[in-house]
């Protein structure tokens, strides 16, 4: 009986091999995952496995650049990496896009079935669009000279499209890059159609070309200077620089912040004399901490005293946070990253200093983990080391506030009791607050308590 079972098992394996050799191995799909809450697309930085390599669950497959950092994608299955569909350097890969295929162990990875691209099936109805309308729709009524952005002009000139056919949506009637791309979608075959074809359709009415008329003195030109990419040194040229995921997300979030959050600003000067003296005493004991570490501690201590500032804004209203975490702005080659010092109110200046240094290093290396840059209600941006006296920062949604810190400066101060002059080390800080969460009175109280904590650091826990 056992012999019969073994023979039956062998026959089944042979049939499976014959079937797979004829139809191809069934693939296990590897798709672009969401590696951070705000991630919408990613870049393939490097493949750590090559086609034909055996893969175990938990093995690193590739490195993916998210909107925050470079994260390693681990395999969730055992098998063999059969086909890499998105090569190294692939940019702006949307979530859910198929990036690779795996097969089960023992299957021939070279015969893996590659599914048809989803984008191609979705894009099939697109070519039918140009056949429905006439080859050239009637020209839109022009109320003045055409004005194009450099990118729009380049697209229209390259594909031989008449600017009169575009619908301007930019400020003051400027035809933007998006307007040019929308026109290109209507006429995908227009690259073979020269721009001189437009005047033929409009030949019966040669008078309707106001763009050729001279402009009145003092008016702006019809077009910005023509750009010719790839020729540096020529007037009006430019070179397009590809934006990283981090840069794109920063742009989106800054725009979201400035257009949806009612920013309010309040500024105050703080005397750093006590902090400077305490730093000297700590340095004698070989304890090295920065002024910024004291600023972080003072902000955390103030949030503990005023928990109504430790809130974030959700779609339905304020949300009070149970813990106090502070985001610190770190400049990296790819953009500004804000790692978070968690439970900052419960930590001493030394521990805050160690955390800040470690997080800054990980941010610059693109190795931050998701929990190291998510959460918190408060951010600190310090440009004092660059000699900036004062500035206003943009709130990082959904947080309530961000504190902009300037450099310290020596100021002569007249002592009221003795009438003598003394030197103070003053530092200007500006609080940007979300008016929906923190009103002007609460912001003023926060800055007053923050100054008190910073000017008397003994009030804070320094362990």
TrEMBL record:
Highest taxon in the source lineage: Eukaryota
Keywords: Acyltransferase, Lipoyl, Transferase, Transit peptide
Enzyme class, spelled out: transferase
GO biological process assignments: pyruvate decarboxylation to acetyl-CoA
Cellular component annotations (GO), alphabetically ordered: mitochondrial matrix; pyruvate dehydrogenase complex
Key word Chloroplast present: no
Start and end residues of each Lipoyl-binding domain: 27-103
Protein name from the UniProt record: Dihydrolipoamide acetyltransferase component of pyruvate dehydrogenase complex
Cofactor requirement: (R)-lipoate
Localization terms from the record: Mitochondrion matrix
E.C. numbers: 2.3.1.-
Major localisation: mitochondrion
Membrane spanning stretches: none
Annotated Pro residues bias: 127-138
Organism: Oncorhynchus tshawytscha
Domain Peripheral subunit-binding (PSBD): 147-184
Name of the coding gene: PDHX
Pfam family, one: 2-oxoacid_dh
A molecular-function term among this protein's GO annotations: acyltransferase activity
Region (Disordered) location: 120-143
Family of the protein in this entry: Belongs to the 2-oxoacid dehydrogenase family.
